[in-house]
User: Fold this.
Amino acid sequence: MILPDDVHYFGISYAAQVKYALENQKSVRGDDEALLEVWETTAAYFANPDNHPDLTLKLKELVSAYKANRLEAFIERHK
Amino acid sequence: MFSIAGAKAQKNDVDYNKYPCKDAANCKAAEPDVLKVATILLDSEIDRAQLDRLNGSSFLLRWMEGTPDYKFLIDSNISLLGGDVDLTGIYFASLVKYTLENPALAEDNNAVKLGTWKLVANYVGNEAYNVKLTRKLKKLVEANNNNTLEKFLEE
Assistant:
């Protein structure tokens, strides 16, 4: 699992899901492109030092993949 | 307000603003309404009144993050839901409902995990709630129907 099991971390992912749903008037519903967009929003949050994220090893990998434009492959590996 | 699928569904008249969940007493006071919202989410179609459902799910998350009385863990099977906000809301509702209805088991992570996913599987497997089943969700429902859910969740 990419995110730690703590509900506080998961709140960021959920916020990204809500953002996608409200902006696109639809949920992810198995759409890989939509899921990638959700992960981009999530990764962008954790990549922003202004948010003072407490990064686990796996979250550091997520941020690295995001910054290197390798997020799609990273997500695919963790499905 | 929520669209109601089940005959026993309650009306959602919860005022979320009453519960900022910033302190223990407020979180405790919220519990009956938290359970009510979770029950309503689990007793109504997934594809109706999405904004109401999002508000309800967000309230549940706020409470889970705020309450000092329970520690909620998100298990790795969450990936079965594919990052879908509506299904994630069902997971939150199931996690909250199982925990509040079984307080003696709240610290038994395996019991909470199994009970939560049983509720999720019952919801997504009920045609009345209009959930479009992905391959993974079909397997979840099959495992629940075959009484092999615990093994399935460990795979």
